[in-house]
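Reply to dn_fold:

You asked what the input looked like. This is it:
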Amino acid sequence: MLRRLTRHPEGGRLLDIESRAPAVALILASFALIVLLPAPLNAAAVFAPLAALLLLLYPALIPLALVASVPIQDAIPIPEEIPITATRVMAAAAAAILPFVLLRKPDRVRWSRFLGFVLVLMAAMILSLWNAVSLPAGYAELYHWLVAGFVFWLVLQFVTTRRQVKWAIALTGLLALSQGVLGVVQSLVGAGPDSFQIGAGLSRSFGAFGMPNSYAAYMEIVTLPLIPLAIWAAQSLWKRTDDYRRARLKGYLASAVERRELLLAGALFLIVTSGALAGLAGIALSFSRGGWIGALAAIGVMVLLIGRRAVATAVVATGILSLLLLVSAPGAILTDIGDRFTQIVDQIEIGDIRGVPVTDENFAVVERMAHWQTAIEMWDEHPWIGVGAGNYNERFTEFAVHPQFDDSQGHAHNYYLHLLAETGVLGLAAYLGFLAGTVLIGWRAYCSTDPLARAIGIGAIGITVALTFHNVFENLHVLNITLQMMLIWAIALIASRWNSPEALGRSAGNDSDQLLYDSHRANVAQHRDQSDPR
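and this is what came back:
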């Protein structure tokens, strides 16, 4: 590891005279952080040099670490007056180390037209700040989208090989597994507050996000892409097993490559499958109506894309699960499930809520509709550029339509109305174009002849469908959940290029690990031929 750390990809030494200055600066900065930062932040600075060197050595970890920080962004106890999260620290570290990584990057910087959709959306948000009463709130919203686009760009630069794409898939599976198991445990032990209690000793799961709806939104994004990937992983494991059986006939040493590939395929299958199952359980136990609708819509579309056999399997599985639920679930849970879907219908039927008296039975519906209609009032006042990005909460009291709900709960409970209120028609049109771009990325990967690319493409389309439906009831672009979306869409874009003529022409630079693997397999095959007595 030390030898690789001190070597440049194109020869020479990494830690030569030209690169000692950044290393010394990194060490001095770490000492300064240890002295200046309050506890426990100064303890994290002890590991900063090691983390920076690791990122220099393996640049693909930069976007993956950013994505992995999302569920733990508030895990470290930090004083409230310090606006720092794990995600912000990782974004700052990535930006600081990026120039040194790019200097070592042997190939050209990659771009995508999809980033144009992100820039157009950000431009609409910047334009909307003309009407903003709080510029800091607008800057915060712009920052979220800037970091999301940054992650997409980082993935394009450093997650360039099939092996690195599998790292990203494994990370997604581990995130779904960890948060899914956490949510299931929370639900079974009734860990939530009284407002989260469902009945029969169960609580709504909320994971590391603190709120069931936000948790369900995150679980959709990490879980749904794993469903087609689990099918691909099972097929890959079967093929690797068959390859190993044939190679093992030649001897233990001769089957070393096949054995290694079999173990890796088995590990990836376990991670992806267990992550998908745990994630689906977490979504179910969140009792989030928007999460349920988004997940069901996405699964339906993905099943259609997978094929007829998947449709038949899904129908049978749905029937079995429904029967088990009716037989085994306590009556209180079934009643709660029915009530939650009934509230959706009531929400559509209630209409204008001005002057509607608030009762315990209609509180949730009237509150949500009050936020919807307040957003419409903002848009009616500023139809083209809205009241300003990030300013929905700042202007809520001014435009409130119901006297009992004159304080915003954070967003409009409908991202399309929320965006329309903040950025007007221009912002909403830019966002719809952004969604169309994600569908195009997923579709191109789905049309690939590569089985892994097709699976990634189906998952990418799945999260777009889930996002589209769930956004009718919530705002999924909160708590940096967009970073996980960008990871999936970016690897779908990378996978869509695997079998293109341009990608094949660049294979020596982008898929060196695959070429080394193929070369090693050729050497092993040659050795077998020479040692075969026949």
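The CA atoms of residues 111 and 201 lie 51 Å apart.
Hope that clears it up.
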